[in-house]
Amino acid sequence: MKKVILCFLIATAYTASAVPLNSVLSENREHSRVIEFTDDEGVARAVDIDEEPDQDLLDEIEHDSENLYQLFTRENPTTPQTLVIYDVDSIQNSNFSPDRKTVVVAHGWLGSQNNEMNALIRDAYLAQEDVNLIVVDWKRLATANYVTAARGIPAVGRALGEFLQFLSNKHGLDYNEVHLVGFSLGAHLVGNAGRLLNGQIARITGLDPAGPLWNINSNRLNPTDAIYVEAVHTDGDTFEGLGIGADVGNANFYVNGGNSQPGCLTLICNHNRAYRLFAATVTYDHLVGRECSNNISLTLNLCRGDRLNMGNTDIRKSVSGVRKYRVNTRRNYPY
């Protein structure tokens, strides 16, 4: 009898430890009121997620998002060309080509066009493929308080969708050759862009999609926002994590279990690891997930299902339904 009770308690503990990954509780959980992010300069910012939003800014963003679109190609790998929606000359006078794949990268809260993530992904992609790489700078909203930025994400996402619609209608952009990549709040941003285009975009990659204020938010990234939606989870701790830690894509990769990363001592290190891992996979395509049958196998590193490479540049990746994978990495580049 004692053995039966012990087994029950162990199973219960394992189940509880898996809750943050994807369960009814994790879908409806509340994060701690105060969380900490780090800006582009490495300065830590305490964030009160009950802070009042800046409604005047939200009203302005709704009418004019002021997104900045910076194009990089192999012809101009480090010096951007500015693309302007509805300005035909800005496109025609640039190196944009509809014959190339188009990769769009969106930073997270407190970010800008100049942050580390954009440079890592840009350089990795252009070394591998001749693509149109467009960096979305939504700094005006991203530098507002977190609550304001989160509420404004649908508007800036729709603005990106309208920009891609303009490129398609006037300049031959093929949605089947478009890959949207977003980090943290940027993951929900690109999800809203894909939604505006009725899920016609070939692929979306969400890099540790933001968690605070998004667990039961209908505007978050979801599996129907593109033909294939992939999420990379690196900091999905139940109450403190900066990532969402729940299945928001067709393929959901929980790196080292999805909550903490080897070599990291802070939440922001865990969170930022997502874009560093992705950049590494663009170069090496070496991180392989194993499908997990349930949360217990995910938490205990017992996933033995089908293999699927995480990240990379493959625009034709696909899985049916919604699936979760565990990926194990090392602490140092290329992980």
TrEMBL record:
Q: Name one GO biological process term.
A: lipid catabolic process
Provide GO CC annotations from the record: extracellular space
Stored Pfam families: Lipase
Under the GO molecular function aspect, what terms does this record hold? triacylglycerol lipase activity
**Where does this one sit in the cell?**
Secreted
Q: Which key words are in the record? A: Disulfide bond, Secreted, Signal
Q: Please indicate if the UniProt record lists Nuclease as a keyword.
A: no
**Family affiliation:** Belongs to the AB hydrolase superfamily. Lipase family.
Query: In which organism is this protein found?
Result: Chrysodeixis includens (Soybean looper)
- What is the protein named? Lipase domain-containing protein
Report the principal subcellular site.
secreted
* Domain Lipase: start-end pairs: 63-314
Q: How far does the signal peptide extend, from start to end residue?
A: 1-18
Q: Which PANTHER family match?
A: LIPASE, LIPASE DOMAIN-CONTAINING PROTEIN-RELATED
